[in-house]
Amino acid sequence: MNRLKYLKHLSFLLFYLTIMAGMFGCQNSSAPYTNEGYWSFVVYGDLRQGFGIYEKLAISMGYEKPTPLLAICLGDIMLESGNEAEWLKFWKYSEPITDKMPLLIVRGNHEGNDAASEWLYRTQTGTPDGQPFYFSKQIRDQLMIILDTEIAGEENSIANQQLDWLKTQLGSASISDDVSGIFIFMHRPLYQQGIHFRETLSNAPEIHEMFKQNKKIRAVIAGHNHMYHYMQKDSINYFISGGAGAPLTHGHGGDYFHYLLFNISNKNDQINMKTIGIFNEICEKRTL
Amino acid sequence: MRFVKKELCKKGLLLFLLLIVKVNAATIWVSLGVYDFTDDISKEFYKYGQSFRVSCDFGQISALKLSATTGGSFSNVPYHGDDHEMFILPLLLSWKYFLWSEQSKIYPVIGSGAGIYAKMDHNEYFPKKRYSFTYGYHFTSGLNYKISNRLTSKFEMRYNILISPGTEDINSSGFDVLLGIGFLF
C-alpha cells in the first residue's frame, strides 16, 4: 500500500516537473529576446561586389539581439553603375537583413548619376519619380537624415536645394520635443581618411559649422573610404564605415571588414557604438 | 604560430617516414602549389593559399594504388593592422587509378578519397588563436611524367570539399593546384 502511495507521489512529482520544465523550456526557447531598455540600428557601407564578405556580415546583422529597428547602407553597393545584375545580387545577399528590418540606402558614387543609373536606382530602392535621393526618417526619438553627395553637377558637396532642405530639417528637429537626437548619413565623408586623407567635401567647412550649431547631432556617418575611422571635431562625432566587402585600404588603421551597431538607451539617453568584424569580434566600443 | 606550424610539419613527416619503412616499393611525392578557395567569403578574405604536400603511394593492386597525404596550406593577408595568418593541415587517404600503364612515359591519374583537416586562424586582435577541425572529401586528377625509373614528376589538381563544422563560419573548400616530384623507394 505504502509503495503504491510512494509511486503515486513520485509520478505526480514527475508530471509536475515535466509541466514546469515544458513551460519554462518553451518560454526560454521560443520567446523572442527583447530588451525594453534600449533599441539598436546597424550601419555598413562599400560592398563593391564583395558579396562573400557582405553575406557573412549580413547574417551577423540579422542575428543581432534585440533585432535592430533599422539598417542603413552607406552606398557603393556595386562596382559598375547601372548594372541590374549587381542590384539583384545585393538584394539576394541582403535577405538576412531585409527579412528582419527595413534597409535604407545612401547613394554612393559607384551607383552613378547618369539618367540610366538613376532610373535603375529609383526602381531598385522604390524612390518615386521626382523625389530626391535625400530624405529623413524618424525612428522613435531619433531623426535619421540621409544625404546625397552624388547629385549630378553637385558631386562631392551638399549644396543648393539639398542644403536648404538640410537646414530646414535640422532647424525643425532642434526645436521639436519628439526628436532627442539626430544621425546624419552620407556616402562621401566631410573629412576623408586613408589614401584620400586631407580631401574634403567641397563645402565641408560650411556643413561642419551648420552641424556645430545643432546640439542634437549624435553622429555623422559616411562610407567611401574602405576602412573604419572615428574622429571628433568640435564635439561632432564623425564616423567612416566603408568595410562591408570592398577591398580594404591598408596602412592607415581601421583596415577590417565590419559593420557598426548603435545601441540607444531609452532611459539615460546613452548611445553605445560597436564595430563588429567578420569573425564576430568586437573591434571597437565607443560611448557617444 | 611558428612553433605550432613546425610541430605539425614534424609530426606529418614522421608519419610518412614510418609509412616508408613499413611499405615496400612506395613512391614519396613532394609537391608545391596554390590553394584556390571556392567559397566566396574565403576567396575574398584569404585570396589564395600556398600549398605544400607530401604524399606516399603504397599498396598497389593492378592499376590501383593507395595514397596518404599531408602537408599544409598557408595564407597571410594584411588585416586589422596586422598579418592575418591561416594554416590548413590535411591528413588524407586516397585511392589512385593509373589510366595508362605506369611503364609509359606519360600517364594520367585519377582518384578520390577522404580526410581530416585542421585549420588555424590567427590575428593579433583575436583574444586567442582560432582552431577548427573538420572532415572532407577530395577528387583528384593529374598527369605524371616519368623522368627516370625512380624519378617522376606530376601536375595534379585536387578538389577538396570541406564539411564546415558549426563553429567555423568560413568554409575552406578549394582546389589544390600542385606541381610535384616523386621518388620510388
How would you describe the overall organization of this protein?
The complex is a heterodimer of chains A (288) and B (185). With 288 residues, chain A is an alpha/beta fold. Chain A has two domains: 1-31; 35-287, Metallo-dependent phosphatases (Purple Acid Phosphatase, chain A, domain 2), CATH 3.60.21. Chain A has helices spanning 2-30, 51-63, 84-93, 95-98, 115-125, 160-175, 204-213, and strands spanning 38-44, 70-73, 103-105, 135-139, 142-146, 181-186, 217-222, 228-233, 236-241, 258-265, 271-277, 282-287. Chain A has a six-stranded mixed sheet with strand order 3-2-1-10-11-12, with no helix packed on it. The termini of chain A are far apart. In chain A, 41% of the residues are buried. Residues 16-34 of chain A have low confidence and may be disordered. With 185 residues, chain B is α+β, with helices and mostly antiparallel strands. Chain B has one domain (2-184): Porin, CATH 2.40.160. Chain B has helices at residues 2-22, 40-46, and strands at 27-37, 49-61, 64-79, 82-98, 106-122, 130-146, 151-163, 174-184. In chain B, strands 1-2-3-4-5-6-7-8 form an eight-stranded antiparallel β-barrel. Classes of the chains: A alpha/beta (288), B alpha+beta (185). The A-B interface holds A 50-53, 55-56, 245, 248, 250, 253, 255-257, 277-281, 283 and B 39-45, 78-81, 121, 125-126, 130, 169-170.
SSE order and pairing:
The complex is a heterodimer of chains A (288) and B (185).
Chain A: H1 2-30, E1 38-44, H2 51-63, E2 70-73, H3 84-93, H4 95-98, E3 103-105, H5 115-125, E4 135-139, E5 142-146, H6 160-175, E6 181-186, H7 204-213, E7 217-222, E8 228-233, E9 236-241, E10 258-265, E11 271-277, E12 282-287
Parallel strand pairs in A: 1-2, 2-3, 5-6, 6-7, 7-9
Antiparallel strand pairs in A: 1-10, 4-5, 8-9, 10-11, 11-12
Chain B: H1 2-22, E1 27-37, H2 40-46, E2 49-61, E3 64-79, E4 82-98, E5 106-122, E6 130-146, E7 151-163, E8 174-184
Antiparallel strand pairs in B: 1-2, 1-8, 2-3, 3-4, 4-5, 5-6, 6-7, 7-8
